[in-house]
Amino acid sequence: MNASGQAELTVGQEIYGGWQQVTVTRSMEQCANGFELTVTERWPGQAANRPIRPGLRCTLTLAGETVISGYVDDVEPSYDKTAHSLAVRGRDATGDIVDCSAIHQGGQWVNATLLQIARDLCQPFGIAVLAETDVGAPFQSFNIEEGETAFECLERAARQRAVLLVSDARGGLAITRAGKDRAASALVEGENILDAKATLSWKDRYSQITVKGQSRATEYYDPEPAASASATATDSVINRYRPLIMLAEAHGANDTIKDRAAWEQAVRRGRGKRATVSVQGWTERPGALWRPNTLVSVTSPMLWLKEADMLIVGVNYTLDNNGARAALSLAAPEAFAQITGISGSRLAGALRAKAEREKNAGGSDCVCWGEM
Description:
The chain is 17% helix and 42% strand. It is of the alpha+beta class and 372 residues long.
């Protein structure tokens, strides 16, 4: 098997390879990536000793690159008359904050940033937190809601600051935004694309999204609320009456409510334009895996895309009798680019300039996704 299809699981000091079936999922839209590995050996013969147990710390590498650092969740040994097999499933260490309750002394923070809240919640799990972007202003007051998990608590705070919570593949949690890196290879129909499909949907999009909240007159402890704050964001593509009113997750100033409305509109617009493209192998070029949070040029007339910049939101790496493959989940970049702190960036400017060039060029058989 070539290096692009090699998966190795390290448990303790032992490295286990030779897996015949591999499934690994990495995504910008989840904070804990997961894997499933299977090996089957025919009788007769002594089964290879693989003392892998649930709860053990593990590290998974694909083509020599670490993609998951966490724990073994499930182990399934099985056998029949002709063979014995072993299946192993696990996730990043951040899987613990997905599963477990949010606990913090008093259940409240005062004038704390998202980074501080994340570190306080993750510290008991031994999970380091790194901010790769501006985490925004401190929360005047932020509370744990009864019964929510640590990730649900953090994800609620992250939505208010329009940032993403993702695994850093080293057992830690990263607070980040999208669209910094670009794949060296392009995805081209008839060349390296094995199969593809797209979903273009208006189901969860609205002509206007209004976010309502309340601003407090003074400090967080003032029991008297000030006048109600609200902001509206418009999706110019939706040409019929489809309004949505949302309540803000917490008290905030007018600027915060405005950012929340703009973020909600951009995310819904971007997530309504998705595609999945499969390619042979796990690497876009020697030594470099296809990675989430990467821009890639896509040309596929069947998907109405012509040299369009798409964002790789997630990658599903598989290995079976058909060899190693990668299924790339793609989204329109505005799903993540048009959020607080990014709308004025060079990335957003480049995307707008490219869209304008394509519009002015005209004459293309491909429908521009930006017009949908």
